[in-house]
Amino acid sequence: MSDPIKNRYEFVILFDVENGNPNGDPDAGNMPRLDPETGYGLVTDVCLKRKIRNFVETAKEDEPGYRIYIKDGVPLNTSDNAGFLCAGIEGAAAMKPEDLKKAIKKREDNGVDVDHQVKEFMCGNFYDIRTFGAVMTTMVKGNLNCGQIRGPVQLGFARSIDPIVPQEITITRVAITTEADAEKKGTEMGRKYIVPYALYRCEGYVSANLARKVTGFSEGDLKLLWQAILNMFENDHSAARGKMAVRELIVFQHDSELGCAPAWKLFDTVTVARKPDVISPRAYGDYSVAVDEAALPAGVTCKRMG
Q: What is the DSSP string of the chain?
């Protein structure tokens, strides 16, 4: 594995949606998520991490060191078992907690550091564990410290720059489910929810300290992260999500592991505002984006990508 990163980073992602639902809320009939007090749109960190995982999986196709731990259709226990197998314990996920603890103790009595070996295997093989961390239930069951790995990369919720007005669109459906329904009517009515247009801002963090002490997140991993963020919607298009695109990625790099300034000071240098003559934004060009690089603290540099 490559050496861990040595610099702390913060970053801002600007992405937009046109005539789509960027993140449906299952508690509200899959309507676009929003803050009910302010009307601002929301996209969860979990949603964005899923897009990043999907891009890495597509780009790397399970290349060694770049497998994805949290993926559709693959039980976590399968991956957990592989981690324990590297430490000489077979079928760990199926064991009762007391039996797993006995098996771990037996290996440790033979001089095997099970906790360290399992952590090294999981971080070394799974990109999303190395990046975002993970809670691995089989390891927790065995009372191993590596059951909860804190990843160096964290994302907040994305929030729209302006309040959004979700629209409920009625559609006709010619795909009839049953023969009885087909005899009664030729079409059915359906609904879908869209946001006509919204620009979202998400803020994130990369800890070089956690990369060094916990997961080994490297410069190569960081480069792949930036690539995945910039392209996270490019291989994930669907009719439900409409037209979505990352418009800009703004990265702040500190010249040290622990950083040179609080994150909020860096985020405050980024301003995104609707242009004065625009009443109802319908395109990215309706906004102006600026970074006050003159206000950046000493030891911090800014790079804009997109």
A: -PPBP-S-EEEEEEEEEEEE-SSEEGGGTTEEPB-TTT-EEEE-HHHHHHHHHHHHHHHHTT-TT-B-SS-TT--HHHHHHHHHHTTT--SGGGS-HHHHHHHHHHHHHTT--HHHHHHHHHHHHBHHHHHHEEE-HHHHHTT-GGGEEEPSEEE--EEEEEE---EEEEEEE---SSHHHHHH-S-EEEEEEEEEEEEEEEEEEE-HHHIIIII--BHHHHHHHHHHHHTTTTT--BTTTBEEEEEEEEEEEESSSS-SS-HHHHHTTEEEEE-TT-SS--SGGGEEEEE-GGGPPTTEEEEEE-
State the pTM of this model: 0.93
Tell me phi and psi for residue 244, to 5 degrees.
Answer: -120, 140
Q: How many CB atoms lie within 10 A of CB 129?
A: 26
Output the tens digit of pLDDT for each of the chain's 306 residues: 579 999 999 999 999 999 999 999 999 989 999 999 999 999 999 999 999 999 999 999 989 999 999 998 889 999 999 999 999 999 999 999 999 999 999 999 999 999 999 999 999 999 999 999 999 999 999 999 999 999 999 999 999 999 999 999 888 877 777 777 666 666 777 788 999 999 999 999 999 999 999 999 999 999 999 999 999 999 989 988 999 999 999 999 999 999 999 999 999 999 999 999 999 999 999 999 999 999 999 999 999 998
Residues 6+ apart with CB under 8 A from 58: 235
- Report the first-to-last Cα separation within the chain, whole angstroms: 29
Domain positions in the chain are 1-44+157-164+194-306, 63-149
Contact between 233 and 15 (Cβ < 8 Å): yes
- Residue 205 region by backbone torsions, left for phi larger than 0, else alpha for psi between -120 and 50, else beta: beta
